[in-house]
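G.,

No rush on this.
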Amino acid sequence: MAIHYHCRHCGMKMGTIDQVSIHSEQLGLHKLSAEERQEMVSYDQQGEIHIATICEDCQEYLTRNPEYHQYDFLIH
């Protein structure tokens, strides 16, 4: 089972963890609320986990332009 991280704003693949067994506590997922977990974590048919996060470029862009927080997708 792999865990894939991607930016929720621009779609850039940020990394993959290829580990057979890993607990949500090791990933910090236990600190998410149920709503945050539903929004950020998804599972595909192969049982792999996909986590939507934010890349450095999008974070910097949103810091400089806070009005863009209303948009789901950013092009930079």
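When you get to it, here's the other one too:
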Amino acid sequence: MFSSFKIRNQVISNRIVRSATADSETYASKSVTEATLKRYSKLAESGIGLIITGDFPTVTPEMLSDSNDRATCYDYEKVRITDIDKIPTVIHAANSETKVYAQLAPANIGSIPSNYPSPWGTEDMHILTESEIHFIVNAFIKTALHLRDEGFDGVQLHAAHGGFLSLFLSPYANYRADHYGGSHENRCRIIAEIVEGIKKECLDFPVIIKINATDYLPGGIDSSNFKAFVTAIINTDIDAIELSGGMWEAMQLSEEALGFPPIPALESRTSIGDISKQSYFRSYARLLKEVYKDIPVILTGGNRTPRLMEEILESGDADFIGLCRPLICEPNLAAKWTINPEYKPKCINCNACIYDLWNHPGSDTFSETRCLYNLQRADPTHKAIYAEAIRWLHAWKSDNIG
């Protein structure tokens, strides 16, 4: 885990990646807070090789308004998080070897590639025209280049978990009959155009992507079409692939159908204390590397046991190990592993942090995402919020789907 590896021409000092984790406290103020900077500084100090931020917006609903001249209405200041340049500054100051990539996604623009089966319906969503897609592509490109100028070492396109780009990639959600739908190549066209546009301006600026290995949905991305899908992704000239999985529509499935409890979020499974249930997207990483050995692969999802992670890297099934929940619990986890390679993370995979990450659903409170389990163990005054988080997680399906 502590050997170096390259993404494009950039040396990453070790194989530990902090997978994107929402910077919840920035959403209300649209600015970087002291809590944000302190968290990133701690992560860098611990010796993590690559930090991927929470998703930053590339385009707003106002930019897509029909009343706008889309040739001129992109404005970086409308999507810029105030003081965002301080994030790479504090990371590089804390550890000059740590790289930081900004994750990119649109704001909530209420737009989709096509209508698709959803327990919440899609009738109120806007189906994008080709000209609107072209504008969004351009917004991604321009935002990425601005973030390069802000000091970031690279960018990641967030195309997993049923988000905007994920809907384009999935045959479950994309029924378009134009250049952006149909074949795997057409569904990946939006990615290809974004990557091409960024590299046309800055060839050596790494552009990586986070995708679903599986949507957990019949007719979506799964083991039967994964190789063909990932071939189309690699042909976009992407520099590395992070594998995750799950769309929110799959929450309607039973535990028997999924093979694990349907608790938010599906990419973050609970009940994985046993090593046999960890690193649960490994088989997809192996499929990818069997065909494309040269593309760097970040394996995220249920990585908990150092000896298993070392074995995955040594086998060549993946090149990096992505972590999210354990680093919410212990930002200094990488440093602990350098001292004791057998150290067991404190994270118990309860997902209470997701309740915090979502800013206490139903509340106007915006705060830093915390490990509520260990917080309530250290301070009994937090027991009530931890109990509410667990209740919310287990009631989410019945409250939102029935």
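The chain has a mean pLDDT of 94. DSSP finds 17 helices and twelve strands in the chain.

Enjoy the weekend,
O.
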